[in-house]
UniProtKB/TrEMBL annotation, chains A, B:
This is NADH:ubiquinone reductase (non-electrogenic). It comes from Malonomonas rubra DSM 5091. Gene3D superfamilies: 3.50.50.100. Belongs to the NADH dehydrogenase family. Residues 10-327 form the FAD/NAD(P)-binding domain. Its EC number is 1.6.5.9. Residues 353-407 form the External alternative NADH-ubiquinone oxidoreductase-like C-terminal domain. GO terms for molecular function: NADH dehydrogenase (quinone) (non-electrogenic) activity.
């Protein structure tokens, strides 16, 4: 499948996340041919992914086929394919069964989780980046209770009823809160032998506070709220080893069968092929217009781009609003250049709109335009802010419906154990649940 | 985990489908201890499973955790476990890490698909019995279009755009109709290189008509409706071979990359351990009270039971209403026996409430109380009949919402390619979509 021989400049966008998708949309009216390639067929609203992992939402509530989103954008075609290599000099991107020439390349392949060199932990402590990740975590959490219900030995049962979340950023905080809600509210009446309210949830953070990207006050508030719910928050605590059945936190060995990884991120591997300097997390250090140094027709947008915000002196954070802004910025540079009226590149300026994290029912923390909020008001703001940008009207309705339902019923609707993965064989229940 | 030492009779129900669940519910007030064991954690509303496979519904819309359904039934505990063996003389059921004694055993493990001795076809022609099956079919159907969009060779592209459904019962008819709707209505605007309306759907049936369980008139009507939509219906046609890339229908070799199996069913394997005569499909020939010959305290209910309906002389069909009736019948026999007022067993009498199949938007066929319906009225009846028995109010709302939405938007909402299975490697797109 070659590029259309239309003669128009060809913009190759790799990645259909917030950056890639918003870049494509901003180019809707431009006189270019766009190819958007992603190795998944769907755009994912990642900020709500933890709710799939904790059985509140179904995958289809927060994911839509990319080609459906762009169906009416006639200058754009969507392909399901993974970029495997690039030839920057000859301007060609390589895919497993095709190569595509480009005039502009926008690399927006994002980040994945990083185990800080301990990739062997990946099987024991799954991370949360894709729908498959979320379904795997959901599966393990639900299986843990099932296994505990069978378990005769008190000590083993307690290990099965212990959940350790590694990493005190928004994902870790939100997962820990939701896991505690499951134990306290959603399932106690469903089990006969175990008291699910005794399940322990531990949130482990290497730094001295939670939510490092938000004001310190909010990090403390989130910690107090979590502790009120019964979550054990362990600050200044590094995970030094993860084995089947236990996790080492500093010197302490905690017997636990469920570990979830929400700690490090690492730029996607393809970055190494781009002849550019990477930061410690494998993200590409871009020029201040988001282009690749030495290759002005290649841009990097979203979580994969490392750029320092001159206002704060810190790198622009890997959050959805930053990715959208970068995607649109790149699109605008391309449009300006094609018009030739004003081809000087503009600097990318990050507009920090604040940040937030939800902790549980009626509990959240948020900072917006320099103002800090917490409690039920922050929770309402959090809910609104996460409904509005959902990609289509149907998703909005469906998510609202699920939230209203779980709010009043205290139940989690999508408690399905599906899939049959490697992990299952290792779980205590593997033999039971297998075919 | 042993049975409770309550001294009450212990009823062990194996299988949480329609038969097992309705048996347990009918025993809600009985003075017994009940254990319901299933190898899945969820009860599945199988009549709508094809809508998960065709991206209309999400799994959580039609499946609920069994322990949630029975949470308020205090005499019942639910365990996630697969029955591996039974000792009929000593009245014990064996599970991978436990054995449970029983006073009554209700075997309701249902049926799976049968490839008539060609189990090697399973990988090439997936069947539809579980949520995982449905997600795998959804995945393959969606990947077929993605692969076709990349494919330069005209002949290979046509093979990727051909879907063969084997078996002209309700599942086959409903799948064929829904697959054609996807091609004609849901996705044409989403692709740039292929015309999805040229996708071919072929429904292959060995017998001389569709929907053999319904009146002949309705089978003919379903055929006409499918043909009007563009489905090729091939009657008196046996599939003699399935290879990667083609299927042999009699003497004809059809190049096709997508085959779905909706033909034979076979009783679940555990039946072989029950010291009873099996029919050709591996179902247990039960006594006329549904008990196991020679073992009156063991019952078989649902799809696994073979019993001849004296009214028609034909076996009771493997449909949801029959399974529910059997489950309740068994529960009533147990209750009568425990009351000792009247311990003589009652014969099971199947009350045939009719049957139906939907073909597409506004098209269905139904027979109820001897009256035949087709067209839009039958379609409304079909919709109502499939909403009412959904297990909880939330599922009903959610399914109604999805149906109303797809009815007016002509779209299929859950078009997600997720999971990473064996099959993927074999698909033309395997290399593209893999990590």
């Amino acid at each position: 499948m070659a590029a259309e021989p239309s003669g128009k400049p060809h913009v190759l966008i790799v990645g259909g996340g917030f950056a890639g998708l918003h870049c494509a949309k901003e180019l809707a009216k431009a006189d270019v041919d766009i190819t958007l390639a992603d190795r998944q067929n769907h755009h994912l609203f990642q900020p709500l992914l933890y709710q799939v992992a904790t059985a509140v939402l179904s995958p289809a509530d927060i994911a839509s086929p990319i080609r459906r989103i762009l169906r009416n954008q006639s200058n754009t075609r969507v392909v399901l394919a993974k970029l495997t290599d690039v030839d920057l000099d000859n301007q060609r991107g390589f895919f497993p069964n095709a190569e595509l020439p480009y005039d502009y390349l926008v690399l927006a392949t994002g980040a994945t989780h990083s185990y800080f060199g301990r990739d062997d932990w990946a099987e024991l402590a799954p991370g949360l980046k894709t729908i498959d990740d979320a379904l795997e975590i959901r599966r393990q959490v639900l299986l843990a209770y099932e296994a505990a219900e069978w378990e005769a030995d008190e000590q083993s049962r307690q290990a099965k009823l212990t959940f350790v979340v590694v990493g005190g950023g928004p994902t870790g905080v939100e997962l820990a809160g939701a896991l505690k809600e499951i134990a306290l509210q959603a399932i106690p009446k469903d089990f006969r032998h175990i008291d699910t309210t005794t399940a322990q949830v531990m949130l482990v953070e290497a730094g001295d506070r939670l939510l490092a990207a938000l004001p310190e006050k909010l990090g403390r508030r989130a910690q107090r709220d979590l502790e009120k719910m019964g979550v054990q928050v362990k600050l200044n605590s590094a995970v030094t080893e993860i084995c089947a059945g236990s996790v080492h936190i500093g010197e302490q060995v905690v017997p636990v069968e469920n570990v979830i990884w929400a700690a490090g991120v690492r730029g996607s591997k393809i970055a190494e092929k781009f002849d550019a300097e990477l930061d410690r997390s494998g993200r590409i250090k871009v020029a201040n217009d988001l282009s690749l140094p030495k290759h002005p027709n290649v841009f990097v947008a979203g979580d994969l781009a490392h750029i320092v915000d001159p206002k704060t002196g810190a790198p622009v954070p890997g959050v959805a609003p930053a990715a959208m802004q970068m995607g649109r910025h790149v699109a605008n540079q391309i449009k300006r250049e094609l018009k030739k009226s004003n081809s000087a590149r503009q600097l990318f300026r990050y507009r920090d709109k604040g940040g937030m994290a939800t902790i549980g029912r009626n509990r959240a923390v948020a900072t917006i335009a320099g103002l800090n909020f917490s409690g039920i008001f922050a929770w309402w703001v959090w809910s609104l802010v996460h409904i509005i940008p959902l990609i289509d009207f149907r998703s909005k309705l469906s998510v609202i419906f699920s939230w209203v339902w779980s709010y009043f019923s205290l139940s989690k609707n999508a408690r399905l154990i599906t899939g049959r993965r490697k992990m299952q064989v290792k779980s205590a229940l593997g033999r039971v649940a297998e075919d």
